[in-house]
């Protein structure tokens, strides 16, 4: 209880830096006031309730009426109506220019008197978006606070089929789709903390869209925060409810004279699907100081991974496969899980390598001798209970509130605290082992546990408050990135938080994103679209082509990766499987080799993964067939996906006055001509169709 109060009083120090000029001051009025930014209109009434409207040409109403969008729960009472008393409009100048409104109101009852001050900011260059920060000041007696909520909206159903599509940015052991249609009975909490023993974190944005328009909400804090973005369509209801909310784990004392400030949140309206909202969100976060890693050319090169041989692989199996890897034109070889003594003890396992670490260095030298770059698998922040590391340094573990260590179920290991000085020192030594002594060229960081951590209560971590571990996790990965690039200036840093919606804050410190154990081709495609909205300069790796089981339709797997601009990868075995694995599942047979040669050659020839992804041309939910577009010079590359399609296909994004020659580049077939006036063509295909649109001079 004490720590919780301290944590939230500390929030008062979080201010948005700005320079402003007072434009006008006025007392309240009975007439609703209006704030407009781009195509977003916000009306505010005399009770500080709001109504969001979109001015996009086809947009229908989002809300039926004014709603209590920003609320505070004290005990069993939710403060939802505050009598408006002041309204101030400012112009912001300097680096972060725009407009700002400070709106004040008062809620008063027999046992409470709380002032509410909402600061709404319209950032220049980020039209259609308004950010909110709410301060509640207790002008009465002591209260118990249970929760605050911003952007509490009920979005109207406009009778589309399906009624809504959504982007949901949380992570759980269910490994759900990030993009999905909604129906009555749907509920997802979207908590940004830990949801299961290994799963948590994500992208703090919820986007709901219909055919006519969409609305996104989220938060703009510079570090991860333990808030939720619940989405719900109750049974026997047709509208969808959303909000950003902080639920206190325990009732928190809100003392007389004190204030509670929410984190900065936002609402945005848009047309099309969620791509534009995520793109604007990322750009705004970067304008506020979050710096993404630079693009790395070597991260776009194709990958072979030893995981096909699984944990009992031998050096002879790996080295024996490399000639075939080289023959296929693949540039990277990855040494996967199985070389180490234990999680935490990262030296060579003497049972597999009797001569010790020198044998792994020789393996890397063999990869380099073949002209391949070498990457090593690693699961940071995990240590086995029986590891030498924890026997010698048990204080590295992250402690829960009851002082028990947090367990990682998947690895049968303990979480290490990302902000513990001893953990950081250990991690730096591991990086020196991997990249300097063993001479690897990059890292494959792996494990869903990397996406988020619990608050750390271990005194050995020397924290001011437990949530510092949550907020400091991105700094841990930034340290890994910086240290790795000091040793190897072109090191490829892959972060694979298996099955999770990757934390936006961890994207900062990698130069290769990955589909992270997708369970469907749909997941590869919509995850690709998501990453390209948020970090368009960063390589996106589609994971091993064998990852998604499609009854031997490997052409379809390759076409999914190539069509969305993803890096190709594989984990084939050759000439045979490891005897301890299921036989035949990954062997590169002569029949499969023909397929692999075709697609890796196409990948190297086209390198679409480096080119611009045009994510706002098609709605991934409502437009059929599902379509993705990449622009390379004056050429456009369309990828269409549908189990069985026969009918008109629309080609968008064509230049005015230009005729395009269409070519099925996967099957060497001409398809016809289109231009901006005649942009549709009747086509038939199964599973996929990849089309090059070549402008004719």
UniProtKB/TrEMBL annotation:
Keywords carried by this UniProt record: Glycosidase, Hydrolase, Membrane, Transmembrane, Transmembrane helix
InterPro entries in the cross-refs: Aldolase_TIM, Alpha-glycosidase_related, GH, Glyco_hydro_36
Molecular function (Gene Ontology), one example: alpha-galactosidase activity
GO BP term (any one): carbohydrate catabolic process
Pfam families for this protein: Melibiase
Gene3D superfamilies the UniProt entry points to: Aldolase class I (3.20.20.70)
Domain of life of the source: Bacteria
TM segment ranges: 7-27
Keyword Transmembrane applies: yes
Keyword Protein biosynthesis carried by entry: no
Listed name of the protein: Alpha-galactosidase
């Amino acid at each position: 209880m004490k720590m919780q109060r301290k944590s939230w009083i500390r929030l008062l120090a979080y201010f948005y830096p700005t320079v402003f000029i007072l434009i006008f001051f006025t007392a309240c009025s009975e007439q609703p006031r209006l704030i407009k930014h781009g195509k977003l209109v916000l009306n505010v009434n005399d009770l500080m309730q709001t109504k969001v409207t979109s001015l996009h040409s086809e947009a229908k109403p989002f809300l039926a009426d004014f709603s209590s969008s920003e609320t505070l729960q004290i005990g069993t009472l939710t403060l939802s109506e505050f009598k408006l008393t002041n309204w101030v409009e400012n112009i912001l100048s300097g680096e972060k220019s725009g407009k700002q409104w400070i709106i004040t109101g008062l809620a008063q009852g027999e046992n409470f008197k709380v002032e509410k001050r909402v600061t709404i900011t319209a950032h220049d260059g980020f039209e259609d978006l308004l950010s909110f920060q709410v301060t509640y000041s207790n002008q009465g007696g002591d209260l118990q606070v249970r929760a605050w909520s911003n952007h509490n909206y009920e979005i109207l159903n406009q009778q589309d089929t399906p009624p809504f599509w959504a982007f949901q940015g949380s992570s759980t052991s269910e490994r759900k789709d990030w993009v999905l249609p909604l129906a009555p009975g749907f509920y997802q909490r979207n908590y940004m903390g830990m949801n299961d023993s290994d799963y948590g974190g994500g992208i703090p944005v919820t986007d709901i869209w219909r055919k006519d328009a969409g609305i996104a909400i989220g938060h703009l804090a510079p570090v991860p925060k333990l808030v939720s973005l619940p989405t719900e369509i109750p049974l026997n209801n047709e509208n969808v409810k959303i909000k950003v909310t902080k639920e206190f784990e325990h009732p928190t004392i809100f003392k007389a004279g004190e204030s509670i400030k929410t984190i900065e949140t936002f609402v945005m309206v848009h047309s099309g699907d969620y791509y534009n909202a995520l793109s604007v969100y990322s750009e705004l976060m970067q304008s506020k100081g979050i710096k993404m890693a630079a693009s790395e050319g070597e991260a776009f090169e194709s990958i072979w991974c030893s995981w096909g041989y699984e944990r009992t692989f031998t050096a002879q199996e790996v080295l024996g496969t490399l000639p075939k890897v080289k023959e296929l034109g693949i540039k990277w070889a990855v040494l996967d899980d199985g070389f180490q003594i234990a999680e935490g003890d990262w030296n060579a396992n003497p049972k597999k390598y009797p001569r010790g670490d020198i044998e792994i260095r020789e393996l890397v030298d063999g990869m380099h001798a073949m002209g391949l770059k070498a990457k090593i698998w690693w699961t940071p922040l995990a240590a086995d209970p029986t590891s030498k590391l924890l026997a010698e340094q048990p204080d590295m573990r992250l402690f829960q509130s009851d002082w028990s260590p947090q367990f990682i179920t998947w690895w049968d290991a303990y979480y290490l605290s990302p902000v513990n000085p001893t953990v950081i020192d250990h991690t730096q030594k591991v990086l020196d082992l991997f990249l300097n002594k063993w001479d690897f060229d990059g890292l494959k960081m792996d494990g869903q546990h990397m996406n988020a951590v619990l608050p750390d209560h271990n005194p050995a971590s020397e924290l001011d408050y437990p949530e510092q571990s949550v907020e400091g996790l991105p700094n841990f990965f930034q340290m890994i990135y910086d240290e790795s690039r000091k040793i190897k200036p072109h090191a490829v840093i892959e972060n694979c938080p298996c099955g999770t919606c990757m934390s936006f804050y961890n994207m900062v410190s990698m130069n290769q994103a990955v589909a992270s154990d997708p369970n469907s081709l749909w997941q590869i495609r919509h995850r690709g679209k998501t990453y390209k909205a948020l970090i368009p300069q960063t390589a996106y790796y589609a994971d091993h082509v064998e990852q998604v089981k499609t009854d031997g339709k490997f052409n379809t797997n390759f076409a999914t990766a190539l069509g969305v601009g993803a890096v190709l990868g594989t984990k084939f075995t050759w000439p045979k499987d490891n005897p301890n694995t299921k036989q035949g599942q990954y062997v590169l047979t002569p029949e499969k080799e023909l397929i692999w040669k075709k697609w890796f050659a196409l990948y190297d020839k086209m390198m679409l993964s480096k080119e611009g992804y045009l994510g706002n041309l098609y709605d991934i939910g409502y437009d059929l067939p599902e379509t993705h577009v990449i622009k390379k010079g004056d050429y456009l590359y369309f990828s269409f996906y549908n189990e069985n399609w026969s009918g008109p296909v629309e080609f968008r994004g064509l230049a005015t006055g230009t005729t395009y020659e269409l070519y099925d580049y996967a099957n060497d077939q001409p398809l016809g001509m289109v231009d901006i006036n005649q942009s549709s063509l009747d086509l038939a295909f199964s599973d996929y169709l990849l089309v090059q649109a070549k402008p004719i001079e």
